[in-house]
TrEMBL record:
Species this protein is from: Cynara cardunculus var. scolymus (Globe artichoke)
Chain sites annotated for binding Ca(2+) 2: T182, T236, D241
Family to which this protein belongs: Belongs to the peroxidase family. Ascorbate peroxidase subfamily. Belongs to the peroxidase family. Classical plant (class III) peroxidase subfamily.
Pfam families, alphabetized: peroxidase
Residues that, per the record, bind Ca(2+) 1: D69, G74, D76, S78, E90
GO function term, MF aspect, one: lactoperoxidase activity
Domain Plant heme peroxidase family profile, first and last residues per copy: 27-311
Domain of life: Eukaryota
Protein role: Removal of H(2)O(2), oxidation of toxic reductants, biosynthesis and degradation of lignin, suberization, auxin catabolism, response to environmental stresses such as wounding, pathogen attack and oxidative stress. These functions might be dependent on each isozyme/isoform in each plant tissue.
Primary residence: secreted
Name the UniProt record assigns to this protein: Peroxidase
């Protein structure tokens, strides 16, 4: 319960990021709302806590939402915009069809507008476990096709390293942020190719633990009539911990992209370090989240009244 409370606190931080993008580097501050809307962080924290009571999947969903938003155009809340007849938005891009819990953002934004009208945008946040610089504005552009640039569960390590580097994120950031999968769940479609007819030499991906592969095949048979079938990305799915890395070390990474981190010499030692030292993972995850939250500085923007539409 303590670790889940920590994660709710962190996700509450992400919402105040999903509920502003920087005007300039100098304009950002961890204390940006202290005078303009001092109750903002408490409003967001309580919103996330309340939503998580009714749906324990909320923290994981919001963590994924944060990553998917920041990785495309920076943390400008472009993922929250609805499609229009003239434009298919990020929200409706193939990788984002399964993104959930937008209602939590909407609830937080409604409360923020009531407490501090036209002050807190849909893209900004900070939590008690690390400071996220604030002072952002919401973006006006959201394009579904750009979601092709999101990391894929089928990507190899070289592709992932290059993708993160384009956003100013290091190899360490790649491995640390992948740790967000500690709360993740995946449907069979994202990993079943690793289980069946992998190659002429191996029926399954040889990097998968053989016993684990058997269990996954039972959950994801061919043909698979259960479209909700899948697997959690670690064995402690309701706890934010380092179990994700321990499972990768054992060959029990669900995604090919996850297991590849242990197969590549450039990332293997980092996976190993996080698997052995949970406190180290927590520190590096927090540092990498700060870097991710500052990807994509824009010069103009707005403060949306409603997160799903531009003003």
């Amino acid at each position: 319960m303590v670790k889940m409370s920590l994660m709710i606190s962190a996700v509450a931080a992400f919402i105040l990021l999903l509920t502003m993008v920087p005007l300039s580097e100098a304009a950002l501050s961890a204390n940006y709302y202290d005078q303009m809307c001092p109750q903002a962080e408490n409003i967001i924290y309580q919103t996330v806590c309340n939503a998580s009571i009714y749906d324990p999947k909320v923290p994981a969903r919001l963590l994924r939402m944060f990553f998917h938003d920041c990785f495309i155009r920076g943390c400008d809340a472009s993922l929250l915009l609805d499609s229009t007849p003239e434009n298919k938005a990020e929200k409706d891009g193939p990788p984002n069809i399964s993104v959930r819990s937008f209602y939590v953002i909407d609830d937080a934004k409604t409360k923020l507008e009531k407490a501090c009208p036209n002050t807190v945008s849909c893209a900004d946040s900070q939590g008690p476990w690390w400071n996220v610089l604030k002072g952002r504005k919401d973006g006006r552009v959201s394009i579904a096709n750009e979601t092709r640039n999101l990391p894929s569960p089928f990507s190899n390590t070289t592709t992932l390293i290059q993708s993160f580097a384009k956003r100013g994120l290091s190899i360490k950031d790649l491995v640390a942020l992948s740790g967000g999968h500690t709360l993740g769940f995946s449907h069979c479609s994202s990993f079943s190719a690793r289980l069946h007819n992998f190659s002429a030499e191996h029926f399954s991906d040889p990097s998968i633990n053989s016993e684990f592969a058997i269990n996954l095949k039972k959950k994801c048979p061919i043909p698979n009539k259960d479209h909700n079938a899948g697997e959690f990305l670690d064995s402690t799915s309701s706890t934010f911990d380092n179990d994700y890395y321990k499972r990768i070390v054992m060959g029990k990474g669900v995604f090919g992209s996850d297991q590849a981190l242990f197969e590549d010499y450039r990332t293997r030692w980092i996976v190993d370090s996080f698997a052995k030292d949970e406190k180290l993972f927590f520190r590096e995850f927090a540092a990498s989240m700060v870097k991710l939250g500052n990807v994509g500085v824009i010069e103009d923007g707005e403060i949306r009244v409603k997160c799903s539409i531009v003003n």
